[in-house]
Amino acid sequence: MKVVIIGGGATGMGVASKIKRNNNNIEVTVIENGSYVSLGACGLPYYVGDEFKDSKKLFARSVEKFNESGIEIHLNSSIEKIDIKNKKLIVKNKEINFDKLVIATGAEAFIPSIKGLDTIDFYKLTKYEDGINLKAIVEKKEINNILIIGAGFIGMELAENLKNINKNVSIVELDSRIASKIYDEEVSDLIKNNLEQNQINLFLNNSVKEFIKKDNKIIAKLMDRDIKVDLVVVASGFRPNTRLFENTELKLSANNAIIVDDYGKTNIDYIYSGGDCCVIKNKITNNHCYSPLATVASKQAKVIANNISNINSKFYGSIQSSIIKLFDSGVARAGLTEKEAKDLNINIKTVFIKDKNHTHYLDGQSDIYLKLIKNVDTNELIGAQMYSNKNSILRFYSIATLIWNKTKLNEEIEQIDLPYSPPFSRTFDIIHIALSKIIS
Amino acid sequence: MKVVIIGGGATGMGVASKIKRNNNNIEVTVIENGSYVSLGACGLPYYVGDEFKDSKKLFARSVEKFNESGIEIHLNSSIEKIDIKNKKLIVKNKEINFDKLVIATGAEAFIPSIKGLDTIDFYKLTKYEDGINLKAIVEKKEINNILIIGAGFIGMELAENLKNINKNVSIVELDSRIASKIYDEEVSDLIKNNLEQNQINLFLNNSVKEFIKKDNKIIAKLMDRDIKVDLVVVASGFRPNTRLFENTELKLSANNAIIVDDYGKTNIDYIYSGGDCCVIKNKITNNHCYSPLATVASKQAKVIANNISNINSKFYGSIQSSIIKLFDSGVARAGLTEKEAKDLNINIKTVFIKDKNHTHYLDGQSDIYLKLIKNVDTNELIGAQMYSNKNSILRFYSIATLIWNKTKLNEEIEQIDLPYSPPFSRTFDIIHIALSKIIS
């Protein structure tokens, strides 16, 4: 059997490696239009922030290592044509046949249409070259004032990293609050305070109407003021990289993401897809959602590889768990936000509480905030968000576990035996207190 | 209704406060033989280690505050006689009647019988005065070499705290490994390495045959050598403080702990007991076990108070979750050890793996060790132990949650959507890897 994988990102290389581990006799070819494979793109903001020097560390594994395990990789190779019916691709004028095809083309940065944006050298941060280019320019002393467009994960992480190398960082965000699709208002507000306390200039409920190049500076004309910056980074989200499939038999969703089933299979029997180019199942609603996260990609990759290798395997969906470090704090979330739940007409109860990370007598006691969202009809926890200092946030793993397992909220779960000792927790953890309140 | 509570520790005061919050009309009297109530005893090692100066911080709440909420407290009051049948106690020659009695007498330090121990001024660490006395003496410059008897939680925490104030600390432990009832060999060994790397002198598989006082020093005659120390601390575990009830109608277990049911009730209808003086139900085996932990006490207190206040409430048991900080590391555990499971003839599968806390490109990447124990017949996780750096250990909350919920081990749980970002984790967390291995 010959498997061709389009895209050498985390998903594509994950599928390739796992197929080879399952059955070394399966031929695996990866076609990648870039000059590298297996980029750990999540590390890009930290590379720009000089947390490490060697950009090669961004790659999970080298092309040579993949080749050694029998994976054929074509770099710098764009698909010129795809012939789904006859199971073949045209790459560099050459025909490549496949028995099974895996589409793992990922996502590309969404570039908003802003007047004058094409006249300035703006930056983005999804590819390896983006990281190299952005780091090279921010290392210049004359680059001091940096404007980031978009307050999502990349925007926030990049803001912190640029601040850490002493840049003056501004974020402009169309929405009235930070990451409003990811967090509810309480947590967006905590993040806003955090960023402001760390001297990130926030322009919420705002947007750039026009960029004007003036001498060596860029003038960003916001809705209410002009700001003069040295550099602009666009971090306005992603969109699935699926242009190649737009007029094919392949079923796409409204946002052009590839639709796959629980087995990673598209509407065409011998074509699979995973990662940032496709929609996934939300485990809570069973609806499709677009959630380009590395955690999802890695799990889908395993499922796809298993099914191709005749090992029955199912992808159980995502609760869109995420965690982010923002200076000394951590923010975690999973499941639905209150807003999402309301939009779906789910009968909910919510609690939002503030407590402490550990005992009062030890140094470093600090605030934790926890929001829980319960589906009153099913009596299940369907969403949660936590904000705390960065060393306390991993307790959220417990909450993600409760949501994942659709645990019923009752006295038994309120008594969950979480480990306690003075440097880590209190006898009643904030999780106990919040569960107690949402149950009653 | 009049409720009398014997013992003003965490359990007793927890019951008292919760009853008053439930129903202010219930009369609540606490009889405490010491001079204080609501000691947070878990803080004692940290007080001795000078992590904080004000010993009053060890008390959760003052006597006055409890009085304000309508709780009557008799300090320095020993029970001279108990007349269970007629529902009365004799305290300081006065009769006190009750409708319901709550026994929360806690535990006392177990003092091993060692020749010469009575001739030296040895210390222990369970009461407030113990902490005051021990801190006063270790603050003396001439007190440098300290021997701790017992490598349990208190012994280990105290060793770290004494090391932090520059003492030369030795631990002698009868067992061949650290805390063998709490951890399996792999984790005991990791702790042993940790303590040794932090210059704690360990004498395992050893014991003191005799103490001899010589000038201002104490000679501890171990099985294989003599060591000269300035101070001895006994941390050989606890035993339930139940002497008062030894020859009464109250049912006690083999180790003299009070036997209670799921509602905190003893064999006598109007007498309840909770905390370190009683046995609890192990949630995995359903057997009674003696597990004096603050987490258990606080949950039992709530259950007892609710049942006394006519709010139906059940204690669901313990999985003996614990966590401990040891210098820069953390150790957590829950459920059964491999040894316990084998002794119970449970058909088990175990995995023990080593992985990393977070991405390799960020500073601070370090090892995590995780052991999982599965009941093969029920396909449930019944035990786990984790060792990592202290800022990574809280991910164990997820494992405790899986054990608590008796989650079935299958592909769905292997895909648990735990949050990821580079400073906290990897796309496949050690939890995913371990689950994957124990499932297959």
UniProtKB/TrEMBL annotation, chains A, B:
> One GO MF term, please?
oxidoreductase activity
Q: What are the alphabetically sorted keywords of the record?
A: FAD, Flavoprotein, Oxidoreductase, Redox-active center
Q: List the Pfam families.
A: Pyr_redox_2, Pyr_redox_dim
- In what residue span(s) does the FAD/NAD(P)-binding domain sit? 1-301
Q: Which Gene3D superfamilies does this chain map to?
A: FAD/NAD(P)-binding domain
Please tell me whether the keyword Oxidoreductase is annotated for this protein. yes
- According to the entry, every stretch annotated as the Pyridine nucleotide-disulphide oxidoreductase dimerisation domain falls at 325-426
* Record family assignment: Belongs to the class-III pyridine nucleotide-disulfide oxidoreductase family.
PANTHER family with a match to the protein in the record: NAD(P)H SULFUR OXIDOREDUCTASE (COA-DEPENDENT) (PTHR43429:SF1), PYRIDINE NUCLEOTIDE-DISULFIDE OXIDOREDUCTASE DOMAIN-CONTAINING (PTHR43429)
- Protein name (Swiss-Prot/TrEMBL): NADH oxidase
Organism whose genome encodes this protein: Spiroplasma litorale
Q: What is the lineage of its organism?
A: Bacteria, Bacillati, Mycoplasmatota, Mollicutes, Entomoplasmatales
